[in-house]
Design brief:
Blueprint (H helix, E strand, L loop, with lengths): L9 H14 L4 E4 L11 E4 L35 E6 L7 E6 L5 E6 L3 E6 L5 E6 L7 E4 L5 E14 L5 E17 L5 E9 L5 E9 L5 E5 L6 E6 L5 E6 L2 E6 L5 E5 L5 E6 L5 E6 L4 E6 L4 E7 L3 E6 L5 E6 L3 E6 L5 E6 L5 E6 L5 E6 L3 E6 L1 E2 L3 E2 L3
Antiparallel strand pairs: 1-2, 3-28, 4-5, 5-6, 6-7, 8-9, 9-10, 10-11, 11-12, 12-13, 14-15, 15-16, 16-17, 18-19, 19-20, 20-21, 22-23, 23-24, 24-25, 26-27, 27-28, 29-30
């Protein structure tokens, strides 16, 4: 099977992007070549759904709200307190993914122009670029101690020394586009979700596991998968979960055997594990809901309506779940009940990713406008904007 210049048969990547865009309730068109890519990567150009003005666009700082929100109150979209905008100011750039350092001082972003960037959160200034990828950096992940950055792109994942910017090791995956990365809780193993075609022109999606210390592939996780949209590893490191457009799958990490599917929610857009490891949250485009699954009992606890979610993130105390995506807003729910707490206007662009600071005081979001944004979740004496 002849692959294109970015290592994928065009129909494969187009299918993956279209599935992701349509899952978010968008209409998308695709160009075979972008002015920003010499390798012919396909790009999604959002045609509708983001025509509302973004009042905070271009502001480095924004005034906080006068007070906190009452439980259950939905905040008007114009009043979301923006603290920082992190932008490389590159044409046609997307921030595909982001991660926050364990001490909460550094932000890491993966970009369309083949780099990952480290930012100083306090000043908003760029510290360092990690360069060496052949295409868009679609996923970034940090080791538990924050000393190593992992970034994924076409055909390779790379491990970097955060302080020096030096490339430490490559994890090659020829002919495959890597879309998602995650690490085991102890940082020993790297997991990557990727898509390619086999020799018979069949669409193939797998998850690979590498030993971080040796760079050796440990095993492959396979099943009736679609495009990988999210990965998570249980806190004991024994189970791997992957969201895809064929549902949510679970494997035994030690054996590589598929345990089964969780729920019956169709296309899964995002996956998040609670900080204590007991609950798994996943956003389904199939029924436009977020599902909360108890991993101890293997039973669904509840589901609640949520349309167009592309990324989920939990506050460190596990009490509040945030969702961002295609509906021009940042939403928050009380995790224990599914009650919506806030609905803030975020951006007139697609919001691709979300992460919460370790102290729970800020939410970071990535955007298809090429910027990452930092939003206040607490004010003054520490009173929370989100109850």
């Amino acid at each position: 099977m002849r692959l294109n210049r970015c290592g994928l048969a065009p129909a494969a990547l187009a299918c993956g992007l279209m599935g992701w865009a349509e899952a978010g309730g968008l209409r998308a068109s695709f160009d075979g070549d972008s002015p920003h890519s010499s390798r012919g990567a396909l790009w999604a150009h959002i045609e509708e759904g983001f025509d509302q003005p973004f009042a905070a666009r271009g502001r480095r700082l924004a005034e906080p709200l006068a007070g906190s929100l009452a439980a259950g109150e939905v905040q008007p979209s114009a009043d979301l307190p923006l603290r920082r905008r992190f932008s490389a100011y590159e044409e046609d750039d997307w921030v595909h993914s982001l991660a926050v350092s364990p001490e909460g001082k550094r932000l890491f972003t993966g970009h369309s122009f083949f780099v990952a960037i480290m930012w100083d959160i306090e000043s908003g200034k760029e510290i360092r670029r990690f360069q060496g990828h052949p295409n868009s950096v679609r996923s970034v992940a940090l080791s538990p101690d924050g000393r190593r950055l992992f970034s994924g792109s076409d055909e390779v994942a790379i491990m970097w020394d955060v302080e020096t910017g030096v490339e430490i090791r490559r994890f090659p995956w020829p002919g495959t586009s890597i879309g998602r990365l995650t690490l085991s809780p102890d940082g020993r193993y790297l997991f990557a979700g990727g898509l390619t075609y086999d020799d018979d022109a069949r669409f193939v999606v797998r998850v690979l596991m590498w030993d971080v210390l040796t760079g050796q592939e440990v095993r492959s996780f396979e099943g009736s998968l679609g495009i990988i949209t999210g990965l998570a590893v249980s806190r004991d490191g024994r189970r791997l979960f992957a969201g895809s457009d064929h549902g949510l799958h679970a494997w035994d990490v030690e054996t590589g055997q598929e345990i089964g599917r969780i729920g019956d929610a169709g296309i899964i857009n995002a996956v998040a594990l609670s900080p204590d490891g007991q609950f798994l949250f996943f956003a389904s485009a199939g029924d436009s809901s977020i599902h909360m699954w108890d991993l101890k009992t293997s039973q669904e606890v509840r589901d609640f309506p949520a349309v167009g979610i592309a990324s989920l993130a939990l506050r460190p105390d596990g009490q509040v779940l945030f969702g961002v995506g295609s509906k021009n807003s940042i939403r928050a729910w009380e995790a224990a009940t599914g009650r919506q707490l806030v609905n803030f206007g975020g951006s007139n662009e697609l919001m691709t990713s979300a992460a919460v600071s370790p102290d729970g005081a800020a939410l970071f979001t990535g955007s298809s406008d090429g910027s990452a944004y930092m939003w206040n979740l607490g004010f003054g004496d520490g009173q929370a904007a989100v109850p």
